[in-house]
Amino acid sequence: MRIGLLNKNPDNYTNTRLYEEAIKKGIEVEHIDYTHCDLILNNNKPDILYKGKSLSSLDAIVPRVGIIKSTYGMAVLRQFEAMEIYSLNSSLGVARARDKLRTLQILSRKDLPFPNSSISNDSLNGAKLIDKVGGTPVIIKLTEGLQGKGTVLAETKQSAKSIIEAFGLTSTNLILQEFIKESKGTDIRVFILGGKVMGSMIRSSNGEDFRSNLHLGGEAKKVKLTPREREIALKAAKEFKLNVAGIDILRSDNGPLILEVNACPGLEGIEKAMDKNIAATIIDFLIKQVEELKDKPSYHKRVPL
Predict the structure, then answer these.
(1) Which GO terms describe its biological process (predicted)?
(2) 14 close to 68: Cβ distance less than 8 angstroms
(3) Fold of 2-89+283-300
(4) Which sign, positive or negative, has the C-alpha torsion 91, 94, 99, 105?
(5) Residues 269, 272, 277: CA angle, nearest 5 degrees
(6) Is 164 helix (H, G, I), strand (E, B) or coil?
(7) Which of 156, 168, 171, 293 is least surrounded, with the fewest CB atoms within 10 Å of its CB?
(8) Nearest to 115 by CA among 262, 257, 260
(9) pLDDT tens-digit profile of 139-183?
(10) Distance CA 6, CA 19 (A)
């Protein structure tokens, strides 16, 4: 069996762990930088060339498309699907989670709880939306932020207006979101695989930072989920069509609120917090999915773009 790890950084913890566990199981693994893939488009036999060689012999891929050239990364992922190569997460699921605006709209439509939010494409209008999300303090996000970067807390209306005006120069949409003060700089990451909760950790900010991202110095430890937290996390992964998902949840006075849906959740924090080999479980799941699909006559039908 041959699989491809679609990523930009083969040396990070998650990609290294997946590679190690796949090799242990006798799987041939190739790190694939999706920005260097060439797509061959025709009516009969679509293909992808990487370093001049065809990737058509791969059995499956694990997509970890980052923010760098994500549009092209998504095109590469769809091309693999057109080639009938199984993807751990579908292009539809990854695209839904990648788009913060689409994420909020799906959560709203599927009756999944999240902090009150407003979205604006105009910095002048954005300042007028502060009261729509409960006033200040208010969270202001860039729609293309990553790992907590591009997310700020404005304590007053004046500071919020200044931040909105500054962000307005970036030519990206802005999200204004209710600040859940009772969460006290913590959130919960629920790691889901194949419709089951593999683990959950509570992440706490370092010092005075309201963001709990581990990449920003936050700390994590194992946490027990409430029935409601488990329910909304599993439903979110299902509605977003994700086999693998990291669902971030805030604990508020009004119950749990979904902060983010992540289609490429990292493994370092959750494996260490749970003391569990989640990378091996992912590889086992991938193997099972490929074996089951190959036995189905419908496997050789094109996946619609």
Answers:
(1) SOS response; translation
(2) no
(3) Rossmann fold (3.40.50)
(4) positive
(5) 105
(6) helix
(7) 171
(8) 257
(9) 998 876 555 567 889 999 899 888 888 877 766 778 999 999 998
(10) 11
Per residue in 254-278, pLDDT (tens digit) is 999 999 999 999 999 999 999 999 9
What are the start-end ranges of the H helices in the chain?
A: 13-24, 70-82, 91-98, 100-109, 123-128, 157-167, 227-239, 268-274, 278-294
**Region 217-231 average pLDDT:** 91
Q: Tell me how far apart the alpha carbons of residues 265 and 14 are, in angstroms, rounded to a whole number.
A: 9
Q: State yes or no: cis peptide before 137, omega within 30 of 0.
A: yes
d(CA 204, CA 216) in angstroms, rounded, equals 11
Residues in contact with 162: Cβ distance below 8 Å, sequence separation at least 6, in sequence order: none
Give me the CATH topology for the region 182-263: D-amino Acid Aminotransferase; Chain A, domain 1 (3.30.470)
Residue 152 DSSP SS3: strand
CA 50/CA 99 separation, integer angstroms: 27
The domain over range 117-179 is classified in CATH as 3.40.1050.10: no
Q: How far apart are CA 9 and CA 15, in angstroms?
A: 8
